[in-house]
Amino acid sequence: MKCDVLVVGASPAGLMAAISAAKGGAGVILLDRDLAGLDHAANTLFEGMAAASGIKVEDCYLKKELEGMRILSPSGQGASIPAKGYFIDRKKFDEHYLRLAQSSGVTLLAGIAKKSRLDGSRRIVFSNEEEIEAKIVVDASGVSSHLAYGAGLVPMRHAEDIAWAMEADIEHPGLGEEMFFLYWIGSMAPGWKATFSPAGGDRATLGVFVRGHGQNVQPFFRAFLKRFRAYKKGQYRDIENLKILSVRRGGDPICVMPGEIVADSLMVTGGAAGQSGLAYSMRAGTICGSVAGEAVAAGNVSRGSLSQYEKLWKREFYWQYRMGRASLQTLAMMKDEEIDRLVRGLSGKRLISGGSFAKKAGYAAAIVLLFRPKTVLDLAVNLMRG
Ligand SMILES: Cc1cc2nc3c(=O)[nH]c(=O)nc-3n(C[C@H](O)[C@H](O)[C@H](O)COP(=O)(O)OP(=O)(O)OC[C@H]3O[C@@H](n4cnc5c(N)ncnc54)[C@H](O)[C@@H]3O)c2cc1C
To answer: Which of 19, 232, 320, 372 is most buried as measured by Cβ atoms within 10 A of its Cβ?
Structure first.
């Protein structure tokens, strides 16, 4: 098979890359191993992220609108932050964007990409089904991608910092009706967070995202489940009997930072490139696809031409991701007692209390991270308030 742009992986970034390359006039194939039964994990986002990414959250996949998040420290100190958020039906979300891709002229193909080889100004991808020859291959196959590595790129700068996650769909009468996401930080989920996300009705998810403890984070999940039941005991009858319906595992590249993301005839986007998050990775995919479309139209698919994608991505996102990483590194170094003090300070009048400027900056950065869509400007404002 031949095409202008082959996108590997119907991830949020891959879908948007395919759509935007096709809109730019390129002939696009979108290849995914599970096209018939996509089962992706990410299902929450905030309005700020969606707006910054140019994404309109559509009614056809919206499950529940939330009022904000509550950050909880290890000892149960809490600070509420209003920020409109969404719980989405991920299956319907994927179907929506697959339909959009098809109506933009993208050919959907089921198959597993094994490796690629550069052949002049084209790249050949060998899948389990056939060989596909493309002017540009976009690797959007997630954190466990091997295509980019196989082509000699190191697309994540700190791959060792992937947060490994275990998330369960749970059911208990009325649990999904809550209006705030709950995010615990501290040693119950070292390096990132433990989450409760209400999905409406009786449904919700519980998850742990852990850095620095390997890929098997089940012990953290078990301990968190126990803590969650204890925390909600006074609020729900029989919470000990909440049902776990299904479990998903995977990696969240929350602070790995993109590394080398373009080569001749090759671009990397989304989780594979360390561009974490549903909305932000969609924006990254959009930039990637539009540069791919332009490169095909101009007849120049060299690394130099494709590096426009890297430049545009950096202009929009580099500092947010840089701050995100700095924030998480700070958080990972904080002891539970320090996090307790920080969250207690947040729930009071002053956002940041006491300490040197550097300490304040570190604390503020940790909190800025939890807003993720917030920018460095927010950090400056928070510091001034402190
Ligand atoms: C448990 C969990 C929960 C999360 N929750 C959220 C959340 O609520 N909100 C948020 O913003 N972020 C969340 N994240 C982070 C988020 O998933 C990612 O940052 C984001 O969705 C980007 O996805 P991705 O690019 O990593 O690709 P994925 O979603 O991993 O998709 C990769 C696609 O590529 C396909 N594929 C892989 N290899 C091949 C191959 N060789 N050939 C063909 N196809 C292939 C797969 O079938 C899959 O469809 C979560 C992460 C995890 C692990």
So the answer is: 19
How many whole angstroms from 353 Cα to the centroid of ligand 1?
38
Q: Is the beta carbon of 13 within 6 A of some atom in ligand 1?
A: yes
Report CA(235)–ligand 1 centroid distance (Å): 34
Token couple for 287: 């930039």
- Which pLDDT tens digit goes with each residue over 232-263? 999 999 999 999 999 999 999 999 999 999 99
Higher-scoring residue by pLDDT: 81, 367? 81
Residues 130-150 have a mean pLDDT of 96
Structure confidence at residue 364 (pLDDT) = 52
Task: Answer yes or no: do 17 and 99 share one domain.
Answer: yes
Q: Which residue, chain included where needed, has tokens 């995977």?
A: 250
56/279 Cα distance (integer angstroms):
10
Are residues 169 and 206 both part of a single domain?
yes
The domain that holds 301 is classified in CATH as: 3.50.50.60
User: In the beta sheet, which residues pair with residue 31?
Assistant: 8, 109
90-107 pLDDT, tens digit per residue, is 999 999 999 999 999 999
Ligand 1 probe mutation, 34, 44, 62, 281, most atoms within 8 A of CB: 281
Ligand 1 proximity of 42 Cβ (cutoff 6 Å): yes
Position 52 in a domain: no
**Looking at the predicted structure, is the pLDDT value of residue 204 above 60?**
yes
- Sheet with 62-72: list strands edge to edge: 44-46, 78-88, 62-72, 180-184, 193-200, 203-210, 163-171, 243-252
In a domain, 327, yes or no: yes
pLDDT at 307 over 90: yes
Instruction: State whether the beta carbon of 155 lies less than 6 angstroms from ligand 1.
Output: no
Tokens of 23: 């809109």
Whether residue 213 is contained in a domain is answered as yes
CATH number assigned to the domain comprising residue 240: 3.30.9.10
Residue after which a domain boundary falls, among 222, 252, 282: 252
The pLDDT of residue 348 is 52
Domain co-membership, 209 together with 344: no
Kindly report the average pLDDT of the chain as a whole number: 90
- Which among 268, 286, 321 is the end of a domain? 321
Show the domain range for 8. Answer: 2-41+91-158+256-321
User: What's the gap in Å between 271 CA and the centre of ligand 1?
Assistant: 6
* Distance from residue 252's CA to the centre of ligand 1 (Å): 8
CB 62 within 8 A of CB 290: no
**Residues 24 and 120 reside in one and the same domain:** yes
Question: At 384, is the secondary structure helix, strand, or coil?
Answer: helix
